[in-house]
Specification:
With 145 residues, this protein is mostly helical. It has two domains: 7-72, Arc Repressor Mutant, subunit A; 77-140, Diphtheria Toxin Repressor, domain 2, CATH 1.10.60. The protein has seven helices and two strands; from the N terminus they run αααββαααα. The protein has a two-stranded antiparallel sheet with strand order 1-2.
Length: 145
């Protein structure tokens, strides 16, 4: 992963990656709408990401991720998905809250911490431990087992 990317630039790259997977490319107006930011903010971020070799942008046209941009976008998206899964499946947070918290935490945790969160999630979701996890969730919610 590009260690030099700020959390904000990671968010722009993650959005461009998600739109590219869906549509083959992204457009600044779509990124703006997805992230709820202004088009000038998107254009500034796109220029910075292009200068770092993560994407290319045709003026008023398509934004395409480079191979390095695709790898970085996939890595950021994977971190987000790992955390969101942990927050929903293990911590029993509502999906909307899990989404918000994953967006914040994906930038703050080390790769090793994220790897361990993912491993813990898989461990706790295994069929042999699923019943214990569900009982713990019910206990936290104040419901009888």
């Amino acid at each position: 992963m590009h260690k030099t990317l700020s959390p904000s630039l990671e968010d722009y790259l993650e959005a461009a990656y998600a739109l590219s997977l869906r549509d083959g490319s992204a457009r600044a107006c779509d990124i703006s709408r997805l992230l709820k930011v202004s088009k000038p903010s998107v254009n500034s971020a796109v220029k910075t990401l292009a200068a770092r070799g993560l994407l290319s942008h045709e003026r008023y046209g398509a934004i395409r991720l480079s191979p390095a941009g695709l790898r970085a976008g996939a890595e950021i998206t994977g971190r987000h998905a790992t955390l969101k899964d942990f927050f929903i499946e293990v911590l029993d947070l509502p999906a909307a809250q899990a989404e918000r918290d994953a967006c914040k935490a994906e930038h703050a945790l080390s790769p090793e911490a994220l790897r361990r969160v993912g491993a813990l999630t898989l461990f706790l979701k295994a069929p042999a431990r699923r019943a214990a996890l569900l009982a713990a969730k019910r206990a936290l919610a104040g419901r009888p087992s």
